[in-house]
């Protein structure tokens, strides 16, 4: 039966004052959700809850309404209640409840909570295992992007590697982002080197030779660290011209003319 027909039947049951009025409101609310009549669905589902506050499936439906309307916190609250009251529900109800709460938590940037719920959904229903692996990989990927935006490069790399481990279809996107993360770590050392060079220039004709030698040592360490991370970035993406040019420049600054020439040649072959 189509959703419109279900709405009519549920409305008739409500008007006739059937014994399970809470169930009638729940059925009509569910049908209205499927018709995307969200506010009317919320009204019916809340009425159902007021009549029977222990019915897990009503909370589940209300959770779906809130999730579909991007109200993740309210969705999570209702999925919590669906799980709380749904222990005796038959079939895959609990698994699906955990699964949908995982989606809401992912959308709400509660990444660890989302992963835990996906794993619980998989534990309760082994048929969802392969799907949950893909979903969990997606959470790790979004988590990695979150760390990337916060410039927490090492944490981002860790999450992108987890995403790759769980879902090989994410390899290209993850490798691109891992490369960018290592590149940015390398840039941090080159930025520090710029400050050191400026101070070295002021000390070039100074009598403070101890400080000059200390800065020279610091600069060499920074250049080596920058080169290390740039090469790690290169392992994940060998076609970024700006990266190859940076590596060539770093080899020049560290006195490795052979490697500098090699990477200049690679750069010339890139667009």
Shape: elongated
The residue ranges in which pLDDT falls below 50 over 5 or more consecutive positions are none
Which whole number gives the mean pLDDT? 87
CATH architecture of one domain: Alpha Horseshoe
The CATH class of one domain is identified as: Mainly Alpha
Largest sheet: none
CATH topology of one domain: Serine Threonine Protein Phosphatase 5, Tetratricopeptide repeat
Count of helices?
13
Element-level helix/strand string: HHHHHHHHHHHHH
Assembly of the depicted chains: single chain
What key attributes describe this structure?
271 residues, mainly alpha, Serine Threonine Protein Phosphatase 5, Tetratricopeptide repeat, 13 helices, 80% helix
Can you give a write-up of this model?
The chain is mainly α. It has helices at residues 3-15, 21-34, 38-51, 56-68, 72-85, 93-107, 111-124, 129-149, 153-166, 171-203, 209-236, 241-253, 257-268. Helix 4 runs antiparallel to helix 5 (72-85). The N and C termini lie far apart (59 Å). The mean pLDDT is 87.
């Amino acid at each position: 039966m189509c959703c419109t027909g279900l709405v009519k039947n549920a409305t008739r049951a409500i008007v006739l004052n059937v014994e399970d009025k809470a169930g009638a409101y729940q059925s009509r609310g569910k049908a209205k959700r499927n018709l995307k009549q969200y506010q009317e669905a919320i009204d019916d589902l809340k009425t159902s809850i007021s009549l029977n506050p222990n019915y897990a499936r009503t909370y589940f439906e209300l959770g779906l309404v809130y999730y579909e309307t991007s109200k993740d916190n309210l969705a999570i609250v209702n999925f919590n209640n669906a799980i709380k009251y749904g222990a005796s529900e038959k079939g895959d109800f609990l698994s699906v409840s955990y699964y949908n709460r995982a989606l809401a938590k992912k959308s709400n940037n509660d990444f660890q909570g989302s992963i835990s719920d996906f794993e619980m959904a998989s534990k309760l229903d082994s048929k969802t295992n392969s799907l949950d692996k893909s979903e969990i990989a997606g959470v790790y990927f979004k988590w990695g992007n979150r760390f990337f935006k916060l410039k927490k490069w090492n944490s981002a790399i860790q999450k992108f590697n987890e995403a790759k481990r769980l879902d090989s279809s994410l390899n290209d996107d993850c490798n691109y982002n891992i490369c960018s993360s290592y590149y940015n770590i390398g840039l941090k050392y080159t930025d520090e080197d710029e400050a050191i060079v400026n101070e070295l220039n002021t000390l070039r004709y100074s009598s403070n030779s101890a400080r000059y030698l200390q800065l020279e040592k610091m600069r060499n360490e920074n250049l080596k660290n920058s080169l290390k991370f740039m090469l790690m970035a290169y392992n994940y993406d060998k076609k970024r011209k700006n990266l190859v040019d940076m590596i060539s420049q770093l080899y020049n600054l560290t006195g490795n003319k052979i490697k500098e020439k090699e990477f200049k040649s690679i750069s010339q072959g890139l667009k």
